[in-house]
Amino acid sequence: MRSVEPMEGYGPASRRRSMVRRKEMPLWQELPLLLVVAFCLAVLIRTFLVQAFYIPSGSMENTLLVKDRVLVNKVIYDMRDPVRGEIVVFRGDENWTPEVTEPVSNTFAAKLGRTIGDLVGAGRPGERDFIKRVIGLPGDKVACCDAKGRITVNGVAVDESYIADGFNSDLNQPPNPNQCTSRRFTEVIVPAGEMFVMGDHRAISQDARCQGPVPISNIIGRAFVIVWPSNRFTSLSVPDEWKAFAAGQPTAAAEGTVPVRQESPATEIVAFPFLLTAALSARSGLPFVTRRRRLPS
Questions:
Q1: Taking the model in full, what pTM does it have?
Q2: Distance CA 221, CA 97 (A)
């Protein structure tokens, strides 16, 4: 059979030369493009996947210290319910009073810096953003205290080893509905779709003891690691005492109610891989469809 010679300028070698020429770009053009792509990826990751949060107060000492920075997983609760003992970041409702209200500069440069920092996850949290530990889930009965001064959940006392001496509130002080200065509080039955949260520094933390439970839908994400300062780098896992508690009570709550969560992962999770692939394809100069067709046979 007679072979057909490829037309001049349209063979494989020509396509390879065209690809090489298309990839070549001066540094002064390539660097701004890389910066824009990196910034867009940082914004996408911060918005949909992981965000860094600055710790502004001592309400979680000694687990978290002032000026620590933690990474928060923002998609985990799209796939499962929160677990007792986890540390979560959430937006407080109108009943929650901001713990830290620092004066901020309103100059243009300061506003621009705050905006960019917020976009890439390096800014300070808003006044309504809080970080606490999950103590009770919907239907749980939470109270304090037993004979040893421990909190009880569904009548079971919990030994909280992460609370250091001197970081607990006064056992002898009478309960105050407006201030969490007392360790004692009357039993609370956590409503459906809400959670009972407390800070690890019980002496100063303003939490669900006096400000009420928080809707689970207000959760921003789970804090899972301290990333700064570097000498405090550590994971934020569920303490052993809460794992033991869960083993004794496998159901989500005493009265059969369960936390409210979405039925399926958010659409952003599905869209993100496509956006990332499209960005990388644009960077290499190859169309997305063409790149898919070049998988090895």
A1: 0.69
A2: 20
